[in-house]
């Protein structure tokens, strides 16, 4: 008998889900952290690519390949994920993503031309789309609604942990190999190792293991049977729960501008700090690390405030956070070079605040639809966030900075912050009328 079979039998006998649920949670947490090891590590190499002759507009164009592919893939993979085993889906996507980074790291000609870089980053973005949907699907099947706000806020911290590790690995890669391409292959090796752990930890949905769905936080297995109905026609699900869902459309559009700021800072801060604020490699890498890890307590606080202070009103919570984000970006922009500690505090503060609204959009999306459409809903909001916000952050910010300097880039991000505040205000009013 396999280890999984033994554990499932043990759970049934004890009439509890707790050990099994937290093993699965560890799987999706490590898995999604692994995706971020090989998602934005390319930005760490951009200052060196600029030194090799590429300009910011070109690199912004290349970087947009991830966002374009990811936005489309997250939506399509969300639909496929709703029909697939999340255990296999999540692990496979991570291995494929890491493989692209290994190719960029070890094959010289892959970074010799901007169009080649775009193609490889597009492929990377497509594989990255296999990350969020199986995690969202797992959460809605293994945790009851009363638990999900806390669970998603904790799980959402995984991408901060994953995203904060590449700059540290890059520092050691430069120290050991004196090769800027270590920004690609150092995180990739770790991601592949994690993918095998994830495959061992995770399971399919409860129904696949003859277990009942989680409808309450605690229950006795013997007193519950799986009465979940088969999902209706997929086309009808999409039309009824996605296409005609006004609230889902509102948060999807708000997501565009939240992602513009999230990735505008994330993609360009290493280059901005290096060029304008005179940060060295260690200083910019550690600041990038702190930016990501500040998102952990910020996300947890946002989830708690959303549930308790704002009584589940996601729009009001997001509005407060985005207002503060926009103000701090303004301070970050106007702070003159030389005030290194103010810049670091601004980066930490933006990281602390921006990931909460990102988490709320994902949480709200999967709560607005039935369980069997959760992956599709998450993919739908992601489609807007990445095709709109992230592509703008990569390509439009890149070309804006190239032709109108950094002032133009910051004006664009601040304008995006203002628009997000307006949209979240409208969402807040909608929730009050529910």
Radius of gyration: 21 Å
State the order of secondary-structure elements, H for helix, E for strand: HHHHHHHHHHHHHHHH
Largest sheet: none
Through-space gap between termini: 50 Å
Describe this structure in words.
The protein is built from 16 helices and no strands. It is mostly helical and 434 residues long. α12 runs antiparallel to α13. The protein is globular, with a radius of gyration of 21 Å. It starts with a helix and ends with a helix. The model is unreliable at 216-231 (pLDDT under 50).
Keywords for this structure?
434 residues; mainly alpha; 79% helix; globular
TL;DR?
The protein has 434 residues and is mostly helical. The chain has helices at residues 3-14, 18-37, 42-51, 56-81, 86-106, 114-128, 132-142, 145-155, 158-177, 182-201, 234-243, 246-275, 281-307, 314-334, 340-367, 374-432. The longest helix is centred in the last third of the chain and has 59 residues, at 374-432.
How do the strands and helices of this protein lay out in sequence?
Elements: H1 3-14, H2 18-37, H3 42-51, H4 56-81, H5 86-106, H6 114-128, H7 132-142, H8 145-155, H9 158-177, H10 182-201, H11 234-243, H12 246-275, H13 281-307, H14 314-334, H15 340-367, H16 374-432
Helix pairs in contact: 2-5, 2-7, 2-9, 2-10, 3-12, 4-6, 4-7, 4-16, 5-6, 5-7, 5-10, 7-16, 8-13, 8-15, 9-10, 9-13, 12-13, 12-15, 12-16, 13-14, 13-15, 14-15, 14-16, 15-16
């Amino acid at each position: 008998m396999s280890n999984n079979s033994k554990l499932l039998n043990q759970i049934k006998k004890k009439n509890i889900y707790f050990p099994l649920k937290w093993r699965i949670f560890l799987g999706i947490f490590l898995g999604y952290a692994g995706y971020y090891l090989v998602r934005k590590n390319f930005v760490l190499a951009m200052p060196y690519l600029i030194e090799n002759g590429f300009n910011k507009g070109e690199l912004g164009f290349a970087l947009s390949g991830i966002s374009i592919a990811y936005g489309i893939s997250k939506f399509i993979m969300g639909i496929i994920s709703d029909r697939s085993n999340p255990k296999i889906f999540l692990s496979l996507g991570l291995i494929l993503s890491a493989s692209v980074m290994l190719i960029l790291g070890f094959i010289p000609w892959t970074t010799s031309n901007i169009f080649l870089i775009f193609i490889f980053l597009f492929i990377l973005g497509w594989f990255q789309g296999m990350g969020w949907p199986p995690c969202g699907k797992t959460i809605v099947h293994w945790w009851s609604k009363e638990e999900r706000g806390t669970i998603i806020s904790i799980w959402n911290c995984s991408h901060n942990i994953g995203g904060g590790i590449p700059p540290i690995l890059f520092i050691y890669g430069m120290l050991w190999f004196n090769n800027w391409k270590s920004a690609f292959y150092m995180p990739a090796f770790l991601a592949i190792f994690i993918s095998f752990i994830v495959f061992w930890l995770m399971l399919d949905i409860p129904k696949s293991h003859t277990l009942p769905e989680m409808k309450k936080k605690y229950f006795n297995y013997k007193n519950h049977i799986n009465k979940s109905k088969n999902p209706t026609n997929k086309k009808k699900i999409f039309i009824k729960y996605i296409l005609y869902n006004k609230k889902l459309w509102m948060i999807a559009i708000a997501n565009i501008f939240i992602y513009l700021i999230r990735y505008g800072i994330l993609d360009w801060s290493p280059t901005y700090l290096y060029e304008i604020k005179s940060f060295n490699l260690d200083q910019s890498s550690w600041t990038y690390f702190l930016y990501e890890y500040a998102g952990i307590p910020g996300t947890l606080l946002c989830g708690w405030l959303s549930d308790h202070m704002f009584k589940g009103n996601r729009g009001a919570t997001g509005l407060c956070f985005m207002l503060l984000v926009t103000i701090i970006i303004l301070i970050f922009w106007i702070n003159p070079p030389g005030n290194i500690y103010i810049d670091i505090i601004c980066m930490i503060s933006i990281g602390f605040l921006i990931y909460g609204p990102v988490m709320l959009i994902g949480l709200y999306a999967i709560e607005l639809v039935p369980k069997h459409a959760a992956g599709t809903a998450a993919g739908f909001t992601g489609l807007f966030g990445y095709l709109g916000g992230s592509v703008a952050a990569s390509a439009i910010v890149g070309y804006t900075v190239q032709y109108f300097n950094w002032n133009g880039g910051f004006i664009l991000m601040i304008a995006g912050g203002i628009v997000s505040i307006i949209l979240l205000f409208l969402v807040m009013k909608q929730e009050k009328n529910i």
